[in-house]
Write a structure and sequence with these properties.
Strand content: 5-15%
Structural class: alpha+beta
Largest sheet: 4 strands, mixed
Number of strands: 4
Shape: globular
Distance between the termini: 18 Å
């Protein structure tokens, strides 16, 4: 379902069944992955429409904010990863992913917002930055800054002393943060001979434990990308700008 071709300019708009959840997605977008993980965690039936974000269909641009994820539900268009995830948690409360305590819910959201800041270090390492070439020296320095930033997440995990941020089971915050780490784990493979400079330090023990536990969750096992496949997809996409060729050539990794 989620390996389907990405619709681009000139593609016809798919039929909409207002009785089903339809998700506008991009298979390897970390933000769209958040919403997919929530849908899977709640065992909700849904349909995926993959969108080529570099050659967007006209109907997609006109009816949305022009980015994914977008949920179509009961005739309404709901954009953005945090908004869609919160919406799903409210209308489908089992299993509840947000804490019931409003204070803890707010504190969890602070953790999500804080860890989302890692993208300013991570993105220039793994993605093709428009208009400039990021040097290897810059990438090494960015990764050092990323590790410094991740020490705050290590401290948060250690202070909670639980398997996940949510305790014995993953909560909304776990699923909102996880997609970044699929990209971080791919860096040693993606960077080739430089890869040894992009391995998370073993001293981040709570973080390594959390990563291992998240890999074992059913939503991540179903939708998550292995480090090898993520690296392959990223390499091909950076070189060609393609979506479907990257997915096809990385199958099995």
């Amino acid at each position: 379902m989620w390996e389907s071709a990405h619709l681009d300019v000139g593609s016809a708009k798919p039929a909409i069944d207002e009785n089903k959840i339809q998700l506008y997605n991009m298979r390897f977008c970390p933000f769209a992955e958040r919403t997919v993980l929530v849908l899977l965690a709640k065992n909700l039936p849904f349909e995926v429409v993959n969108i080529d974000l570099k050659k967007k269909p006209d109907w997609f641009v006109k009816s949305t904010l022009g980015k994914v994820p977008v949920i179509l539900h009961k005739g309404k268009i709901i954009p953005e990863s945090l908004i869609t995830s919160d919406y799903l948690d409210e209308i489908y409360p089992e299993p509840k992913l947000h804490p019931t305590d409003p204070l803890q819910k707010a504190l969890d959201r602070v953790v999500v917002e804080k860890q989302s800041q890692m993208m300013k270090y991570l993105y220039p390492i793994f993605a093709k930055v428009p208009g400039r070439e990021v040097t290897n020296e810059e990438k090494v320095e960015l990764f050092k800054n990323l590790v410094e930033h991740l020490k705050t997440f290590e401290e948060e995990l250690a202070s909670r002393g639980t398997k996940y941020l949510g305790g014995d089971e993953p909560c909304m915050a776990d699923y909102m943060i996880w997609p970044y780490f699929e990209r971080i784990e791919a860096l040693p493979i993606l960077l080739g001979e430089l890869g040894q400079n992009f391995v998370l330090p073993s001293g981040l023990e709570a973080l390594h434990s959390w990563i291992n536990e998240m890999r074992l969750t059913e939503p991540v096992k179903a939708y998550g990308l292995s480090p090898a496949r993520m690296a392959k997809i990223t390499k091909i996409h950076n070189e060609t700008g393609g979506y479907d060729d990257a997915l096809k050539e990385s199958l099995g990794l």
